[in-house]
Amino acid sequence: MNHLHYLNEYRKESGKNYKIYVTGILTRFTENLREKYFEVFGGLADQIVFKYVYNQGGYMPEIDELLRCDCDDEVRRRCNLPFDAISVTQEGYLSVENADYENMLVVADLNKVSLREGWYGEKMKDMRRRFIEDDLDGTLCDGCVHHTHSPARAITPECSSVEGDYVFDDSCVRERLKNSGLTVYVPMSADIVHPGHINILKTAARYGRVIVGLFADEAISTYKPKPYMTYEQRKIVIESIKYVDEVVPQMTRDYDDNIRRLKPDFMIHGKDWREGPLADVRAKAIATMSEWDGQVIEPDYTKGVSSSMIRGQIR
Ligand code: SF4
């Protein structure tokens, strides 16, 4: 605020004709606060600009779940950088974006060509076309826009520190989240482990340290057939999954005891419990989690596979 006041005063005193803009980054936590921006910054800025949060440089794979807006849609969140931002690296390269630490998105060497030539050059134009036509395959931006982990190649290999195909690896992000102190509770019985379990655990690992509440045999027996494997056997399997940090027993079908004791920041459960026999357990879990502002995240159910489907095939 002091800077804004100063910029306004200085503009008045100096007679210089610069513009003052304030940018608000909208996430699902802040999108209701638009009006506040006008209350706070009105009169101090020539314009208040809002942008939706997006996964700049592909360096925050977790952003999609953590920060997305309710009014989220892929096109609105598509990156603006190739169109309205000039980013020059310390080597003097023109890059499509400013967090391109490996120079994967360099479009021109400004030691050799002018900024105008680079900005309107064929490589920059081609990147803009690719954004407009959503043809980002093989670029770092593909991972960023579509949240994929596909191989990417540098646009100008001689300017990049990366050779060949590069696949963005989010292990550093997972490590950071793990050390952030945030915890995620994931209840599961995991008798027949299938890709649906892995998807849930992978999602959970994007939120923090993953604690699996593994249903005890007696708890499973209250709502479905006795498990094929014992608790200890299932525990060994789940503990070996790289997304899992800890396994604790889930003694009842109701999660209240464990979540009250662990007070996780997040709880993850597939959407399938919204209706049917678990709907009351869900309502209770959401109410309990809200006591400490914990969030319940419900990723899409993995289609085409489930424990009961596999169990049916085995029979
Ligand atoms: S990597 Fe591409 S899509 Fe992502 S912020 Fe940079 S320019 Fe935009």
Summarize the structure.
The protein has helices at residues 2-14, 34-41, 63-67, 74-77, 81-84, 115-119, 122-132, 140-146, 171-178, 195-205, 217-221, 231-239, 256-262, 279-290, 307-314, and strands at 21-26, 47-52, 87-88, 93-95, 106-109, 183-188, 209-215, 246-250, 266-268, 295-297.
Describe this structure in words.
- The protein has 315 residues and is of the alpha/beta class.
- The protein has helices at residues 2-14, 34-41, 63-67, 74-77, 81-84, 115-119, 122-132, 140-146, 171-178, 195-205, 217-221, 231-239, 256-262, 279-290, 307-314, and strands at 21-26, 47-52, 87-88, 93-95, 106-109, 183-188, 209-215, 246-250, 266-268, 295-297.
- The chain has two domains: 81-168, no CATH class; 171-308, Rossmann fold, CATH 3.40.50.620.
- Helix content is 37%, strand content 14%.
- The model has no long low-confidence stretch (mean pLDDT 84).
- Iron/sulfur cluster is lined by residues 56-58, 79, 81-82, 96-97, 140-141, 144-145.
